[in-house]
Write a structure and sequence with these properties.
single chain, 90 residues, mainly alpha, 3 helices, elongated
Length: 90
């Protein structure tokens, strides 16, 4: 536990930030998961319509520092690649 006044204040601030960061991470994971689920049932149209939502969630996570820039670009790249792969298989 923090002892000094400033350490107590820092603990309160980090607890608040943790809530927002977890919300960003969950939003990102949920949007990616919906795309992957629609690809599992070979519903490419739904996946393509949800890609903008996933991009937005990933970019917001980068902006807040939840994930790194290269991680975000890798996630985006793999999402599009999986959509194109599913589309080509049909």
């Amino acid at each position: 536990m923090p002892i000094t006044k400033s350490a107590k204040k820092a603990l309160r601030g980090s607890a608040k930030k943790r809530v927002f960061n977890n919300a960003r991470k969950k939003a990102m994971k949920d949007s990616v998961k919906t795309i992957k689920k629609s690809l599992m049932i070979k519903d490419v149209k739904t996946a393509e319509s949800k890609i903008a939502e996933a991009y937005q969630a990933i970019d917001k996570a980068v902006k807040r520092g939840v994930i790194k820039k290269n991680t975000a670009s890798r996630k985006k790249s793999r999402l599009v690649k999986s959509i194109l792969r599913t589309k080509a298989a049909q």
